[in-house]
Write a structure and sequence with these properties.
Mean pLDDT: 89
Distance between the termini: 56 Å
Largest sheet: 7 strands, mixed
Structural class: alpha/beta
Strand content: 15-25%
Radius of gyration: 21 Å
Oligomer: single chain
């Protein structure tokens, strides 16, 4: 029985840089339509971050439920949904996330078809390891896999990322941990990272997000993939490519871009300080006439990048300051802080 794996759809994403309200709507519609297109007559596993935020707009939630329910009714296949880091946060331990809501409704209506991995879960030939509360818990769960063999182990985490090793929002496996799992004839697959990578002679797959939702997702690889698994063997199925979807265009040549051609446009090139206003005008005019989802300005003015990286802006916006503070405190200290903030 084959199983298709996709990951990191980030349904209901809200991009800060390079969008307008209208293009944000187009982007969100595109992501839902792309998800729907990947649901076929095959069991399906989503390896985390189905949704972009802990709580999403009710319209997006309803439309996503409709997609899954129609597919489950039509084909009678099985669906497994893994909790990602966007679906959980320390300050939300006693709150219901949108992921919790949609999965509980799906489980109620399709109890024999839907599996939800909010804890380590066995499903078919898979062991599903969702985003966990901290690195200590993740390492404990990995230690429990020391005798596991001939399985497909799916994580929602980074791999070999030293920058993520000390954070709790984005967890990390070392290459030594991955190699140990692979040594027992397991296949290891990762959701969470947005760029495809093949490691340990192809027995570890960082699948990358199945459909891009930002310019950063388009840079680095011209393709996005789903994986089709039989047992512990897999083949990659192209899900997106950059042709007629992503382009890097010099700001002086924006007039040659057809209105409908590209979904993601990165404006590049060099300009003098005297040309800076002309750059802004050219990019603005492109945004007014283009149907693109995201258009970013990466032009260098006098050799300097004059724009803040879009991903950095979104990270700042998404950072939960109080959640980070509470994560470092015990219950008594948290209550004291809450009293002071009233």
């Amino acid at each position: 029985m084959k199983t298709k794996i996709t990951t990191d759809w980030h349904v209901a994403v809200k991009r800060v840089g390079g969008t307008t309200p209208e293009s944000q709507t187009r982007l969100r519609n595109y992501l839902r339509q792309s998800l729907q297109a990947q649901l076929d007559n095959t069991d399906h596993l989503i390896a985390g971050d189905l949704l972009d935020d802990f709580t999403i707009d009710s319209f997006e939630l309803t439309e996503t439920y409709k997609i899954f329910s129609a597919w489950l009714l039509k084909y009678g296949k099985k669906l497994a949904l893994v909790r990602g880091n966007h679906d959980w946060k320390p300050s939300g331990e006693n709150r219901y996330s949108s992921f919790d809501l949609i999965t509980s409704i799906l489980k109620q209506h399709f109890p024999e078809q839907v599996t939800v991995a909010s804890t380590v879960t066995e499903w078919k030939q898979f062991i599903l390891v969702p985003h966990l509360a901290n690195s200590d818990i993740l390492n404990l769960e990995i230690s429990k896999l020391k005798d596991v063999s001939n399985k497909v182990i799916v994580f929602h985490a980074n791999v070999g990322n030293f920058f993520a090793a000390e954070t709790q929002h984005s967890l990390n496996l070392t290459m030594e941990q991955v190699e140990d799992l692979v040594s027992r004839d397991n296949l290891v697959i990762f959701g969470h990272e947005h760029q495809y990578r093949s490691l340990v002679s192809g027995r570890c797959v960082v699948l990358g997000n199945t459909a891009p939702s930002s310019i950063a997702d388009c840079i680095g690889s011209p393709f996005k993939y789903a994986a089709l698994l039989t047992g512990t063997e897999y083949e990659l199925i192209p899900a997106w490519d950059h042709l007629n979807s992503y382009i890097e265009a010099d700001w002086r040549d924006l007039g040659s871009i057809e209105d409908y051609q590209y979904n993601f446009i990165r404006v590049v090139g060099n300009a003098t300080a005297l040309e800076a206003a002309a750059v802004i005008k050219a990019v603005s005019q492109l945004r007014q006439r283009s149907e693109a989802f995201v258009i970013t300005n990466s032009v260098k003015v006098d050799g300097q990048d004059m724009t803040m990286n879009t991903e950095s802006i979104e990270s700042i916006k998404a950072f939960d300051v109080m959640g980070a503070i509470y994560a470092e405190l015990n219950e008594r200290e948290i209550e004291t802080v809450k009293e002071l903030m009233k």
